[in-house]
Amino acid sequence: MNCYPFIEAEKQGDHNVKRACELLQVSRSAYYADRASGPSVREQRDAELTGKIIEIHDESSHTYGSPRVHRELRSQGERCSRKRVVRLMRAADRHGRIPRRWKKTTIPDPDAPTRPDLIGRDFGIDLDQPGQLDRRRCGDITYIHTWQGWLYLALLDRYDGMWVLAATTGMRRSELAGVERQGVDLENGVLMIEDTRVVVAGRAQASDGKSEASQREISLDAFTVRHLKRFIDQMNQERKDFGRRYPNHDYLMAGPEGRPLHPDTITARFNRLVDRAGVPRIRLHDVRHTYATLAQDAGHNIKTLSERIGHADVTVTGKIYTHKSRGTDRVMADAMGAMIERLAAQNEASETGRGSEVG
Question: How many percent of the chain have pLDDT more than 90?
Protein backbone atom coordinates (compact mmCIF):
# COMPACT_ATOMS: atom_id res chain seq x y z
CA MET A 1 0.00 0.00 0.00
CA ASN A 2 1.23 3.50 -0.82
CA CYS A 3 1.19 5.38 2.47
CA TYR A 4 2.44 8.69 1.07
CA PRO A 5 -1.07 10.01 0.31
CA PHE A 6 -1.91 9.65 4.03
CA ILE A 7 1.18 11.65 4.98
CA GLU A 8 0.30 14.24 2.33
CA ALA A 9 -3.17 14.56 3.83
CA GLU A 10 -1.62 15.14 7.24
CA LYS A 11 0.67 17.79 5.78
CA GLN A 12 -2.22 19.56 4.06
CA GLY A 13 -4.03 19.57 7.38
CA ASP A 14 -1.07 21.35 9.04
CA HIS A 15 -0.24 18.31 11.14
CA ASN A 16 3.19 17.00 12.07
CA VAL A 17 4.84 15.22 9.09
CA LYS A 18 7.57 13.75 11.29
CA ARG A 19 5.03 12.11 13.59
CA ALA A 20 3.03 10.75 10.60
CA CYS A 21 6.19 9.22 9.10
CA GLU A 22 7.08 7.60 12.40
CA LEU A 23 3.61 6.07 12.77
CA LEU A 24 3.70 4.70 9.21
CA GLN A 25 7.33 3.61 9.57
CA VAL A 26 8.73 5.52 6.60
CA SER A 27 11.53 8.04 6.47
CA ARG A 28 10.85 11.71 5.89
CA SER A 29 13.52 11.80 3.17
CA ALA A 30 11.72 9.04 1.23
CA TYR A 31 8.39 10.90 1.54
CA TYR A 32 9.84 14.19 0.28
CA ALA A 33 11.71 12.40 -2.52
CA ASP A 34 8.43 10.82 -3.68
CA ARG A 35 6.66 14.17 -3.38
CA ALA A 36 9.23 15.86 -5.63
CA SER A 37 9.37 13.08 -8.24
CA GLY A 38 5.95 13.89 -9.78
CA PRO A 39 3.53 11.35 -11.25
CA SER A 40 4.80 7.81 -11.61
CA VAL A 41 4.90 5.96 -14.93
CA ARG A 42 1.76 4.09 -13.95
CA GLU A 43 -0.05 7.30 -13.03
CA GLN A 44 0.92 8.84 -16.38
CA ARG A 45 -0.33 5.73 -18.17
CA ASP A 46 -3.58 5.89 -16.18
CA ALA A 47 -4.07 9.52 -17.26
CA GLU A 48 -3.47 8.57 -20.91
CA LEU A 49 -5.93 5.67 -20.75
CA THR A 50 -8.50 7.80 -18.94
CA GLY A 51 -8.46 10.33 -21.80
CA LYS A 52 -9.11 7.57 -24.35
CA ILE A 53 -11.81 6.01 -22.16
CA ILE A 54 -13.61 9.36 -21.89
CA GLU A 55 -13.53 9.84 -25.66
CA ILE A 56 -14.83 6.32 -26.34
CA HIS A 57 -17.55 6.83 -23.73
CA ASP A 58 -18.54 10.16 -25.29
CA GLU A 59 -18.66 8.68 -28.80
CA SER A 60 -21.04 6.00 -27.52
CA SER A 61 -23.39 8.71 -26.19
CA HIS A 62 -22.44 7.64 -22.64
CA THR A 63 -23.89 4.15 -23.16
CA TYR A 64 -20.74 1.97 -23.06
CA GLY A 65 -19.85 0.13 -19.89
CA SER A 66 -16.43 -1.25 -19.03
CA PRO A 67 -16.72 -4.41 -21.23
CA ARG A 68 -17.34 -2.51 -24.44
CA VAL A 69 -14.91 0.28 -23.56
CA HIS A 70 -12.26 -2.37 -22.90
CA ARG A 71 -13.06 -4.09 -26.21
CA GLU A 72 -12.78 -0.76 -28.07
CA LEU A 73 -9.42 -0.02 -26.40
CA ARG A 74 -8.13 -3.44 -27.43
CA SER A 75 -9.26 -2.83 -31.01
CA GLN A 76 -7.19 0.38 -30.95
CA GLY A 77 -4.09 -1.57 -29.93
CA GLU A 78 -4.13 -0.68 -26.21
CA ARG A 79 -2.99 -3.39 -23.80
CA CYS A 80 -4.73 -3.10 -20.45
CA SER A 81 -6.83 -5.30 -18.20
CA ARG A 82 -10.57 -5.05 -17.83
CA LYS A 83 -10.20 -4.39 -14.09
CA ARG A 84 -8.02 -1.41 -14.85
CA VAL A 85 -10.71 -0.01 -17.17
CA VAL A 86 -13.30 -0.52 -14.41
CA ARG A 87 -11.11 1.35 -11.93
CA LEU A 88 -10.39 4.25 -14.28
CA MET A 89 -14.04 4.58 -15.33
CA ARG A 90 -15.12 4.65 -11.70
CA ALA A 91 -12.51 7.31 -10.90
CA ALA A 92 -13.71 9.41 -13.87
CA ASP A 93 -17.35 8.93 -12.83
CA ARG A 94 -18.19 7.19 -16.12
CA HIS A 95 -20.88 4.53 -16.18
CA GLY A 96 -22.62 2.52 -18.88
CA ARG A 97 -26.33 2.69 -19.49
CA ILE A 98 -28.86 1.06 -21.76
CA PRO A 99 -30.47 3.59 -24.13
CA ARG A 100 -34.21 3.82 -23.97
CA ARG A 101 -35.80 1.84 -26.75
CA TRP A 102 -37.15 4.04 -29.51
CA LYS A 103 -40.89 3.79 -29.82
CA LYS A 104 -41.92 3.77 -33.44
CA THR A 105 -45.18 5.65 -33.81
CA THR A 106 -45.37 6.23 -37.57
CA ILE A 107 -45.48 3.40 -40.10
CA PRO A 108 -45.62 4.58 -43.74
CA ASP A 109 -48.31 3.16 -45.98
CA PRO A 110 -46.62 1.54 -49.01
CA ASP A 111 -49.78 2.08 -51.10
CA ALA A 112 -50.05 5.79 -50.30
CA PRO A 113 -49.37 8.19 -53.18
CA THR A 114 -45.99 9.92 -53.16
CA ARG A 115 -45.97 13.55 -52.12
CA PRO A 116 -44.31 16.29 -54.17
CA ASP A 117 -41.22 18.11 -52.90
CA LEU A 118 -42.65 21.47 -51.84
CA ILE A 119 -39.38 22.72 -50.35
CA GLY A 120 -36.99 22.29 -53.24
CA ARG A 121 -34.08 22.56 -50.76
CA ASP A 122 -34.99 26.22 -50.20
CA PHE A 123 -34.61 26.66 -46.44
CA GLY A 124 -34.24 30.45 -46.59
CA ILE A 125 -36.58 32.70 -44.63
CA ASP A 126 -37.75 36.27 -44.91
CA LEU A 127 -37.32 37.89 -41.51
CA ASP A 128 -39.48 40.83 -42.56
CA GLN A 129 -42.48 38.52 -42.81
CA PRO A 130 -44.11 37.32 -39.54
CA GLY A 131 -44.33 33.62 -38.68
CA GLN A 132 -41.45 32.54 -40.95
CA LEU A 133 -39.37 30.68 -38.39
CA ASP A 134 -39.81 26.92 -37.90
CA ARG A 135 -42.13 26.44 -40.88
CA ARG A 136 -40.06 24.25 -43.18
CA ARG A 137 -38.96 20.88 -41.87
CA CYS A 138 -38.62 17.82 -44.04
CA GLY A 139 -36.53 14.72 -44.67
CA ASP A 140 -36.28 12.19 -47.46
CA ILE A 141 -34.55 8.96 -46.52
CA THR A 142 -32.47 7.02 -49.00
CA TYR A 143 -30.08 4.21 -48.20
CA ILE A 144 -26.66 2.88 -48.96
CA HIS A 145 -25.93 -0.85 -49.12
CA THR A 146 -22.88 -1.90 -47.11
CA TRP A 147 -21.27 -5.15 -46.02
CA GLN A 148 -22.81 -4.65 -42.55
CA GLY A 149 -26.40 -4.43 -43.78
CA TRP A 150 -28.32 -1.26 -44.57
CA LEU A 151 -26.62 1.93 -43.51
CA TYR A 152 -29.23 4.66 -43.72
CA LEU A 153 -28.08 8.20 -44.43
CA ALA A 154 -30.37 11.16 -44.95
CA LEU A 155 -28.94 12.45 -48.23
CA LEU A 156 -31.70 15.04 -48.46
CA ASP A 157 -31.61 15.96 -44.79
CA ARG A 158 -30.58 19.49 -43.89
CA TYR A 159 -27.20 18.14 -42.77
CA ASP A 160 -26.60 16.03 -45.89
CA GLY A 161 -23.08 17.45 -46.16
CA MET A 162 -22.23 16.15 -42.70
CA TRP A 163 -23.61 12.65 -43.32
CA VAL A 164 -21.83 12.36 -46.67
CA LEU A 165 -18.59 13.61 -45.10
CA ALA A 166 -18.85 10.94 -42.40
CA ALA A 167 -19.54 8.20 -44.97
CA THR A 168 -16.80 9.12 -47.46
CA THR A 169 -13.99 10.00 -45.03
CA GLY A 170 -14.60 7.91 -41.89
CA MET A 171 -14.34 11.02 -39.68
CA ARG A 172 -15.03 10.71 -35.96
CA ARG A 173 -18.02 12.46 -34.37
CA SER A 174 -15.74 14.86 -32.49
CA GLU A 175 -14.03 15.74 -35.78
CA LEU A 176 -17.33 16.41 -37.53
CA ALA A 177 -18.38 18.70 -34.68
CA GLY A 178 -15.04 20.54 -34.64
CA VAL A 179 -14.22 20.91 -38.35
CA GLU A 180 -13.84 24.57 -39.33
CA ARG A 181 -14.83 26.30 -42.55
CA GLN A 182 -11.34 27.69 -43.05
CA GLY A 183 -10.09 24.11 -43.30
CA VAL A 184 -12.38 23.32 -46.24
CA ASP A 185 -10.91 23.89 -49.72
CA LEU A 186 -13.66 22.86 -52.13
CA GLU A 187 -11.81 24.19 -55.17
CA ASN A 188 -8.92 21.77 -54.65
CA GLY A 189 -11.01 19.09 -52.91
CA VAL A 190 -9.05 19.13 -49.64
CA LEU A 191 -10.10 19.15 -45.99
CA MET A 192 -7.81 19.99 -43.05
CA ILE A 193 -8.77 18.23 -39.81
CA GLU A 194 -7.12 19.88 -36.82
CA ASP A 195 -9.37 20.60 -33.84
CA THR A 196 -12.26 18.58 -32.42
CA ARG A 197 -15.17 19.21 -30.08
CA VAL A 198 -15.72 16.68 -27.28
CA VAL A 199 -18.24 16.38 -24.47
CA VAL A 200 -17.03 16.98 -20.92
CA ALA A 201 -19.60 16.87 -18.11
CA GLY A 202 -22.37 17.32 -20.68
CA ARG A 203 -20.82 20.41 -22.27
CA ALA A 204 -19.12 20.61 -25.66
CA GLN A 205 -15.61 22.00 -25.56
CA ALA A 206 -12.78 22.39 -28.07
CA SER A 207 -9.96 19.85 -28.10
CA ASP A 208 -6.79 19.35 -30.15
CA GLY A 209 -7.68 15.81 -31.21
CA LYS A 210 -6.86 12.31 -30.01
CA SER A 211 -3.25 12.30 -31.23
CA GLU A 212 -0.85 13.96 -33.64
CA ALA A 213 -1.97 11.54 -36.35
CA SER A 214 -5.58 12.72 -35.99
CA GLN A 215 -4.51 16.16 -37.23
CA ARG A 216 -4.34 15.56 -40.94
CA GLU A 217 -5.15 16.78 -44.44
CA ILE A 218 -7.40 14.55 -46.53
CA SER A 219 -8.69 14.63 -50.08
CA LEU A 220 -12.38 14.99 -50.92
CA ASP A 221 -14.12 13.33 -53.87
CA ALA A 222 -16.49 15.15 -56.23
CA PHE A 223 -19.58 13.60 -54.61
CA THR A 224 -18.61 14.94 -51.17
CA VAL A 225 -17.56 18.32 -52.55
CA ARG A 226 -20.94 18.71 -54.24
CA HIS A 227 -22.89 18.08 -51.03
CA LEU A 228 -20.55 20.23 -48.92
CA LYS A 229 -20.86 23.12 -51.37
CA ARG A 230 -24.64 22.95 -51.21
CA PHE A 231 -24.51 22.80 -47.41
CA ILE A 232 -22.13 25.78 -47.16
CA ASP A 233 -24.24 27.81 -49.62
CA GLN A 234 -27.25 27.12 -47.41
CA MET A 235 -25.35 28.27 -44.30
CA ASN A 236 -24.21 31.44 -46.07
CA GLN A 237 -27.82 32.26 -46.89
CA GLU A 238 -28.86 31.67 -43.29
CA ARG A 239 -26.05 33.90 -42.04
CA LYS A 240 -27.22 36.60 -44.43
CA ASP A 241 -30.87 36.25 -43.34
CA PHE A 242 -30.05 36.44 -39.64
CA GLY A 243 -27.63 39.33 -40.06
CA ARG A 244 -25.82 40.49 -36.92
CA ARG A 245 -27.79 38.06 -34.77
CA TYR A 246 -25.90 35.16 -36.33
CA PRO A 247 -23.19 33.84 -33.92
CA ASN A 248 -19.60 34.67 -34.83
CA HIS A 249 -17.65 31.39 -35.17
CA ASP A 250 -15.94 29.34 -37.87
CA TYR A 251 -17.45 25.90 -37.22
CA LEU A 252 -18.78 24.17 -40.32
CA MET A 253 -21.52 22.15 -38.61
CA ALA A 254 -24.08 24.58 -37.24
CA GLY A 255 -27.85 24.73 -36.92
CA PRO A 256 -30.11 27.07 -38.92
CA GLU A 257 -29.81 29.69 -36.17
CA GLY A 258 -26.00 29.49 -36.30
CA ARG A 259 -25.25 27.61 -33.09
CA PRO A 260 -22.46 25.00 -33.43
CA LEU A 261 -23.83 21.47 -33.27
CA HIS A 262 -23.30 19.73 -29.94
CA PRO A 263 -21.65 16.30 -30.53
CA ASP A 264 -24.55 14.61 -28.71
CA THR A 265 -26.97 16.42 -31.03
CA ILE A 266 -25.19 14.90 -34.04
CA THR A 267 -25.57 11.42 -32.56
CA ALA A 268 -29.20 11.98 -31.58
CA ARG A 269 -30.13 13.22 -35.06
CA PHE A 270 -28.35 10.31 -36.72
CA ASN A 271 -30.14 7.85 -34.43
CA ARG A 272 -33.46 9.51 -35.20
CA LEU A 273 -32.91 9.16 -38.94
CA VAL A 274 -31.97 5.49 -38.54
CA ASP A 275 -35.05 4.82 -36.39
CA ARG A 276 -37.34 6.55 -38.87
CA ALA A 277 -35.93 4.28 -41.55
CA GLY A 278 -37.17 1.27 -39.56
CA VAL A 279 -33.86 -0.62 -39.40
CA PRO A 280 -31.97 -2.08 -36.41
CA ARG A 281 -30.05 0.54 -34.44
CA ILE A 282 -26.55 1.32 -35.69
CA ARG A 283 -24.14 3.82 -34.18
CA LEU A 284 -22.72 6.83 -35.94
CA HIS A 285 -19.28 5.41 -35.12
CA ASP A 286 -20.21 2.30 -37.12
CA VAL A 287 -20.06 4.47 -40.26
CA ARG A 288 -16.33 4.91 -39.59
CA HIS A 289 -15.79 1.16 -39.20
CA THR A 290 -17.81 0.50 -42.35
CA TYR A 291 -15.69 2.97 -44.29
CA ALA A 292 -12.48 1.22 -43.21
CA THR A 293 -13.92 -2.18 -44.10
CA LEU A 294 -15.10 -1.03 -47.54
CA ALA A 295 -11.71 0.51 -48.29
CA GLN A 296 -9.83 -2.66 -47.33
CA ASP A 297 -12.22 -4.89 -49.26
CA ALA A 298 -11.71 -2.66 -52.29
CA GLY A 299 -7.96 -3.30 -52.07
CA HIS A 300 -6.78 0.20 -51.14
CA ASN A 301 -3.39 0.75 -49.48
CA ILE A 302 -3.63 0.11 -45.73
CA LYS A 303 -1.09 2.82 -44.86
CA THR A 304 -2.98 5.47 -46.84
CA LEU A 305 -6.23 4.34 -45.20
CA SER A 306 -4.65 4.54 -41.73
CA GLU A 307 -3.44 8.09 -42.35
CA ARG A 308 -6.74 9.11 -43.94
CA ILE A 309 -8.88 8.07 -40.94
CA GLY A 310 -6.34 9.38 -38.41
CA HIS A 311 -4.93 6.24 -36.83
CA ALA A 312 -1.56 6.66 -35.14
CA ASP A 313 -0.47 3.10 -36.02
CA VAL A 314 -1.19 1.20 -39.23
CA THR A 315 -1.50 -2.03 -37.21
CA VAL A 316 -4.53 -0.55 -35.43
CA THR A 317 -6.23 -0.07 -38.80
CA GLY A 318 -5.45 -3.63 -39.78
CA LYS A 319 -6.79 -5.05 -36.52
CA ILE A 320 -10.05 -3.15 -36.76
CA TYR A 321 -11.05 -3.86 -40.14
CA THR A 322 7.94 6.69 -42.44
CA HIS A 323 6.67 9.71 -43.97
CA LYS A 324 3.07 10.90 -43.98
CA SER A 325 1.53 10.88 -47.45
CA ARG A 326 0.04 14.12 -48.67
CA GLY A 327 -2.32 13.92 -51.61
CA THR A 328 -1.68 10.21 -52.16
CA ASP A 329 -5.17 9.46 -50.82
CA ARG A 330 -6.73 11.22 -53.83
CA VAL A 331 -7.31 7.92 -55.66
CA MET A 332 -8.91 6.44 -52.54
CA ALA A 333 -11.08 9.51 -51.99
CA ASP A 334 -12.41 9.46 -55.55
CA ALA A 335 -12.94 5.69 -55.60
CA MET A 336 -14.71 5.53 -52.23
CA GLY A 337 -16.88 8.57 -52.98
CA ALA A 338 -17.89 7.10 -56.34
CA MET A 339 -18.71 3.76 -54.71
CA ILE A 340 -20.98 5.32 -52.08
CA GLU A 341 -22.63 7.60 -54.64
CA ARG A 342 -23.25 4.63 -56.95
CA LEU A 343 -24.75 2.52 -54.15
CA ALA A 344 -27.00 5.40 -53.16
CA ALA A 345 -28.11 5.98 -56.75
CA GLN A 346 -29.07 2.31 -57.15
CA ASN A 347 -31.84 2.78 -54.62
CA GLU A 348 -32.79 6.37 -55.40
CA ALA A 349 -35.56 5.50 -57.85
CA SER A 350 -37.42 3.31 -55.37
CA GLU A 351 -36.87 5.45 -52.29
CA THR A 352 -37.00 9.06 -53.49
CA GLY A 353 -40.33 10.63 -52.71
CA ARG A 354 -41.05 8.83 -49.49
CA GLY A 355 -41.38 11.80 -47.19
CA SER A 356 -40.75 11.61 -43.49
CA GLU A 357 -40.69 14.54 -41.09
CA VAL A 358 -37.48 14.94 -39.16
CA GLY A 359 -38.32 16.84 -36.01
Answer: 17
